[in-house]
Fold this sequence. Notes:
CATH superfamily of the largest domain: Malonyl-Coenzyme A Acyl Carrier Protein, domain 2
Strand order of the largest sheet: 2-1-7-8
Number of helices: 13
Mean pLDDT: 94
Number of domains: 2
Largest sheet: 4 strands, parallel
Number of strands: 8
Structural class: alpha/beta
Shape: globular
Amino acid sequence: MVAAVFLFPGQGAQYPGMGLDLLEAGGDRADAAKKIFDCACDALGRDMIALIRDSDTETLKRTDVSQPALCAASLAAAASLAALGVKPAACAGFSLGEYPAFACAGVISPEDCFRLVDARGKAMQGAVDRIAASGDPPGMAAVLGLAPARVEELIALWAIPDLYAANINSPKQVVVSGSAAALSMAKTRFREAGARRFVRLQVAGPFHSPLMKEAAGAFAPALEAVEFRDPAVPLFSNVTGARIKSGAEAKTLALRQIVEGVRWTDEEAALAALKPAALVETGPGKVLQGLWRDTESAVPVYGAGTAAEILELGERLK
Length: 318
């Protein structure tokens, strides 16, 4: 079996009905996926299958809905792959995706994974709702056409209050978080500095920045109550971009991740150093596949979010 790195997508990859076709795949794959959805239902006390099936796109955008729903779809995909004998050589996840990565790497149980993402989603949605009540809420924007190092250098140089580099997505894209005033000022400054585009994102809040401190404080007690074990396979951090050495470190970084940026390009470099045969986006969407291809690595990346993709991948990685 080919050694593949599992990549778990973050919020934004969700869509109505995601992952439910895994339940119709038949045989061991369907049984494995059903166990994950049943686990989510039991842990959260609500019917996650009905939630994913019946929610519209706008409902699924809510942070407190999308986080447990996306986690369920992603872990169901990982379980379906395992039923075909495809298991991870390493794990990494983008933002929310770190939690199914934790579970897949044996750091937390699936039950605790669902409880944590539920608490995280509620804490973040609560903070976002209070932010939105301000009338001119903060948010996020993508800076295209400037190298990540240049974006970070400019942010430090300008010292615009409440402007932060949030997601270092690829050599071609950085997402910044900030107050409404900071983003307005940054739009002009980045264009003058040579950015090709500055695109305000349709997200609910200024994620992965100190502006989410309230959410981190609300989430901390739930996180502290859960046991984190040492990773059973290599596992990588959004905050540091490096390999996580212990369960204790994973727990500390999980809290920091709410208020600190996602250093995805650093994680990709660390994953490339493992010399994997392939990477697999395990769950809905294709965002992480695109970001990996932006690195121009020769290592292939595949999708594993649908029953058809997983079946094909099981044959490909034999």
